[in-house]
Every structure is written in C-alpha cells, then in structure tokens.
Design goal:
13% strand, Arc Repressor Mutant, subunit A, 44% helix, 9 strands, single chain
C-alpha cells in the first residue's frame, strides 16, 4: 500500500491552518513566555513559505476566536507571533528586541573568536546598537551567558575589571583568560598571572622564552628587566626563578608548586628529555 502524500496548501482548509497556527502559538508562548519567530511554524506546513503564513494571519486575527494571536514586526523586518493570553504587547516587544540583540551579539562574539582570535569587549558592543541605551545593551550582553540558546558564549574578567565575551566553540577558557591579561597591557601582571596559572593548573614552571610568542605581544619589552622586577617586588614574593644548565630561565609560583618538583621538571625538560631520545 502506498504512503499518502503530504497535504499541500491547496488540500488544507483555512480553518485547519488557523487552528494549527493558534495552537502552536499559544502553546509556545505559554511555555517559553516569549514570542516565536514565524519561521518556527514552517514545521506545521512544509509547503508554506513564511510570507504565506503571514498572509493567512492577516485574515486569521479578524476571526473572534483567534483575536488573542498577535503579530509584531521587528526592526530587522522579521515577524513574531504570540498570544496575549500569556504575555502582554509590551512584554512581547521587549523580548523581541532582546532576542534579536542577543542573536547579533552571539554572531559578533563567534566571529571574533573564530576569525580574529580575539575577545569581544563588553563595553564595545554598544556601538552595534546605536538605537538602544548602553545599559540595556550591557544587560543583554551579560544575560547571554545564562541563555540556553547560546551555550558556547562565555565571559571572562580581565585584570582591570573589564568583562569580555568569547565563544567556547572556538577558544578555550585558558586561552580566553590569557587574552584578557594581554588586553590589560601590563607586561608585569601578564607574566605573573600566567606563571601562577601554569603552576596551579598543570602544574609546571613557565619558560620565560614562552613570553616571546606573538600572542603575548611582549616582543619589544625588556624581558630580563621585567623578570628582575617581578622577583624584587614583595607582592610577587611567591614567584621564584630557576636557571637551567642550558641557560634557559623558568619561573614558578611556590603557592602551587613544591620547589624540588619545579627543579626536577626543569631538569627533565632541559637535559634529561633530550638524553632519553
């Protein structure tokens, strides 16, 4: 026996279309407490384009039993539907603005993380939305990290208190913290915090030559003078130095690493590992 073909627009009565749309909008509005994009109704009618659904809505909302179904057109010219049985017009407007703002923020953060290999400063996002109050944009930007629709968007706090966003799909948390330290443009703090993190996380001493890598942006800095300054300052008294037999210099934090372990690690890395190959 042949499987029946899907119903086409011509085979569906207007009443069936209206009932299906209204049921879906009411159910989703009640469940999500926010409007739904018109394109989400496409699963109900695979043969129907969004503009066709909108055309039906114009006639549908004139029918008394469907007058709770409302349509709002966003700033991006997208159509959203909701039932005012469950949310007000004002709430719907606010949630639509929030939804579209979050979508654009997520796109910007993902592009920065993937294409530019950089963090997205929270205080720079206001430039994207000149028609919104800056505090409102900041509120949305912080809320995005709690929204289940954007699980990859995370935030990291820089040493100076600035908040940055990044996409965990394109950048690790450790690398994001490193970039936040680089953004602070404080070579001494950058070196100290990196050494402490490596001593705590891995744990391992940090080879000073590592800081010549491009990501640290320290190639023009007097590295030897900075290291001496770190070792001399009382607030960095946990940072210790190891001079390897090869001439390489390592730093570690004795908050997190035992000195004998740190020395054994350096000896292995600089001497024994090469001899064992």
């Amino acid at each position: 026996m042949e499987t029946p073909a899907p119903l086409t627009i011509q085979k569906i009565s207007l009443d069936v279309i209206y009932i299906a749309i209204a049921d879906q909008v009411r159910t989703e509005t009640q469940k999500q407490a926010k409007p739904i994009h018109v394109e989400t109704l496409g699963v109900l009618f695979p043969d129907m384009k969004p503009e066709d659904i909108i055309a039906h809505l114009g006639a549908m909302i004139k029918v008394e039993r469907y007058q709770d179904i409302k349509v709002q057109i966003s700033a991006s010219n997208a159509a959203y539907l909701y039932s005012e049985n469950f949310i007000s017009s004002a709430d719907a407007s606010e949630k639509i603005i929030a939804e579209e703002t979050l979508t654009q923020i997520a796109a910007r953060v993902r592009q920065d993380s993937e294409k530019r290999i950089k963090l997205t400063p929270l205080n720079a996002l206001g430039e994207m939305f000149p028609d919104l109050e800056l505090e409102r944009v900041k509120r949305y930007s912080l809320a995005i990290t709690e929204d289940n629709q954007y699980p990859d968007i995370r935030q990291v706090l820089g040493p100076t208190g600035l908040v940055y966003l990044y996409s965990a799909s394109h950048m690790t948390e450790t690398y994001a913290r490193l970039l936040a330290r680089v953004e602070a443009n404080n070579p001494t703090a950058l070196i100290v915090e990196t050494v402490r993190e490596e001593s705590y996380v891995y744990p391992r001493p940090t080879k000073v030559a590592l800081f010549y890598a491009p990501v640290f942006q320290l190639h023009d800095c007097p590295m030897e003078a900075i290291v001496q300054s770190v070792l001399a300052r009382p607030e960095y008294s946990d940072i210790k130095k190891i001079d390897a037999p090869t001439g390489a210099v390592y730093l570690y934090s004795d908050w997190y690493m035992n000195p004998s372990f740190a020395e054994r690690y350096v000896r292995w890395e600089e001497v024994e590992k090469a001899n064992s190959q």
